[in-house]
């Protein structure tokens, strides 16, 4: 029975993009079904981060010392370059202040845990992807408030201290608790591990549906600008990761992981911060990004899965 449950969990996790799309469409059609989720966005994201912490060990960060150049490249792309791209697309698409702030929050967010699953499907370097996600999650406490203040402050005043406190509550504390659970409750953690990807995917689906539900009227009335900005940011992130892999001559496996890590964001964190510190309209970009990155990420990782793998510097990811 347990083995069957694990198989079902793995299958649902791989095709969770379809579930996200279906629930998102339902949230826009019948928003009353998901509005109840909105007050619980922060604890739900904390649950996801706790699950992520349970999958980690202190040794997982050994890549930072073993391959510091590759790690620094990924972190710089995830935070700095994606934040600048978000700022550019805000201006290019002439987004209103609240929506622009939401897109900046997405751009400054760390990589999402979904990138680890996508890297696995794509036959990418999973330990590298996990290290980027884990380290980026902690560095978000420093980079996200600073970059949001620097870039988003053009439109709306930013409470840097409040962002630091919120990120600590939503991300840092739950991840540290998860690490502690892995260390001191090993038996329970091992039994829970096979189901954590599914739990995370279902939880983020609920979060996305809840955000879309409370913004359903605004989204349906919004122009194409916010949709184009979100799609362009995601595709630019995937392209940027691929380009950097070629420039720095990373092997194909590492290049695929970098590509997916840069384009896949912790957009749930961006939506939670938007709701807590700005407005429901500011959360639209994060919710739409969550939906779109599941579509693009699933398509790209499955395409990579069908391509040959070797260990030479990549000419084609």
TrEMBL record:
It holds the Pfam family SBF. The keyword Transmembrane applies. Its main location: membrane. The chain crosses the membrane at residues 12-30, 36-59, 71-89, 101-121, 128-151, 163-181, 193-214, 226-248, 269-292. The keyword Transmembrane helix applies. It is found in: Membrane. It comes from the Bacteria. InterPro entries: BilAc:Na_symport/Acr3 (IPR002657), Bilac:Na_transpt (IPR004710), Na+/solute_symporter_sf (IPR038770). Keywords: Membrane, Transmembrane, Transmembrane helix. It is a multi-pass membrane protein. PANTHER family: P3 PROTEIN-RELATED, SODIUM-BILE ACID COTRANSPORTER. This is Bile acid:sodium symporter family protein.
């Amino acid at each position: 029975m347990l083995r069957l449950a694990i198989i079902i969990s793995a299958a649902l996790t791989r095709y969770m993009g379809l579930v996200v799309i279906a629930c998102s469409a339902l949230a826009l059609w019948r928003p009353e079904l998901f509005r109840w989720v909105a007050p619980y966005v922060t604890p739900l994201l904390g649950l996801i981060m706790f699950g992520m912490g349970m999958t980690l060990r202190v040794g997982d960060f050994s890549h930072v010392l073993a391959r510091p150049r590759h790690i620094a490249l990924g972190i710089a792309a995830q935070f700095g370059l994606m934040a600048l791209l978000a700022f550019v697309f805000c201006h290019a698409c002439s987004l209103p202040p609240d929506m622009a702030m939401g897109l900046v929050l997405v751009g400054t967010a760390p990589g999402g845990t979904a990138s680890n699953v996508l890297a696995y499907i794509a036959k990418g370097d999973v330990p590298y992807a996990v290290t980027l996600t884990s380290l980026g999650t902690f560095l978000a406490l420093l980079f996200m408030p600073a970059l949001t203040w620097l870039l988003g402050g053009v439109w709306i005043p930013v409470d840097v201290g409040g962002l630091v406190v919120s990120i600590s509550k939503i991300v840092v504390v739950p991840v540290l608790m998860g690490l502690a659970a892995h260390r001191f409750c090993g038996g329970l953690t091992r039994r829970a591990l096979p189901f954590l990807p599914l739990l995370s995917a279902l939880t983020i689906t609920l979060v996305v549906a809840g955000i879309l539900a409370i913004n359903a009227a605004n989204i349906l009335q919004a122009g194409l600008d916010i949709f184009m900005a979100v799609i362009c940011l995601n595709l630019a992130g995937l392209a940027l990761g691929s380009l950097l892999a070629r420039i720095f001559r990373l092997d194909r496996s590492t290049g695929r992981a970098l590509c997916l890590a840069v384009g896949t964001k912790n957009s749930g964190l961006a939506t939670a911060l938007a709701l807590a510190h700005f407005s429901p309209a500011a959360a639209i970009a994060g919710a739409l990004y969550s939906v779109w990155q599941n579509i693009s990420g699933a398509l790209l990782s499955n395409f990579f899965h069908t391509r040959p793998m070797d260990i030479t510097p990549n000419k084609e990811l």
